[in-house]
Fold:
Amino acid sequence: MVLRLASSYMSIPQTPRTSTSLSQRVPLRKPGKMWKRGCTRRLDILPSLNGDGPGLRVFVLSDLHTDYSENMMWVECLSTAKHKRDVLLVAGDVAETYNNFVLTMSLLKERFKHVFYVPGNHDLWCRRESDVSFSSLEKLEKLLDACKRLGVKTDPMVIGSLGIIPLLSWYHESFDREEDITSFRIPPLEMACKDYHACKWPEELSNRDTSLASYFDAMNENNMDLIEDIKKTCEQIITFSHFVPRQELCPEKRMLFYPNLPKIIGSDSLEVRLRSIHGAEGSGSACHVFGHTHFCWDAVLDGIRYVQAPLAYPRERKRRMNGGENWLPFCIYSDGEFAERLSPCYWSDYYSVNPRQPRNTELAPWVARFYSQRKDHNT
Structure:
């Protein structure tokens, strides 16, 4: 994700690739009508593809942001032979522009046998195409149409004995239930989050309430017959989304340079949706992959394993303990078993030994120092 204050909060270099406009407009459909209703859809069940070779392998990746030339180059440098029998789950934020999105997904499809995708917020930005009169919902349909042409899968499917379920989602501010930071002046969401300006929604849909989150969640209803078939067919299921299903999958506000971040990352309906699939208590065969916050994460909460493996921005990878260029995409599933946990993951490692303190609003030293310096600079 990108904050409008990135230059002062994160010092992220802006080196986007150029692209041309959308080739054509997409007619707007009514909410909940992105797919046709009233028809029976058959669940696709594919063999594990590997014959006498090694078993099925599933890799995960999010937040590719290939409008950055370094990130597009990373995709281009992925092996064209190593993953020919593998599956890749792309958990959103591929590219801001349509042409970069299509190029990126084409490159991934050339390298992996199966590629699955769910959209992220950056994918639905409308600010840099030459024709800026289309909406984010129109762009969503344009991206899904492109996926269909490329052979990228956006519907639930069974491969071998593994169920894979993409889940559409969006965030809402009320997702954040922890104490706000009031000791310093925090910039408002409209100033900090580019989504409020780069996305274009109908008047009845808003980030301010749950209308957008509910709209996107309702689209998943179109796949409920397929999902129910997968629940009956598969003991092992991977669901994946772009947005965050639980606030515990993000550091506490006092740890963040932008403490209001939890208001623009997740959806309660997403957690309800994935629990309806994996079960309220989860199981050792339940996994959910997400993206958006750019924090590497691997933790089990209430019986479900939650994993984030983001490529993120080039500057962020340089700051991370484990970078990303060399170990991504992360293999989450191999030979009928889920992989060992991703390590190191700084924040999920931290919370595995330190209890969360949501009522503690005393800023972490690095955050307090940052805001003190900003205050001194502005006086």
Remarks:
- Residues 5-33 have pLDDT under 50 and may be disordered.
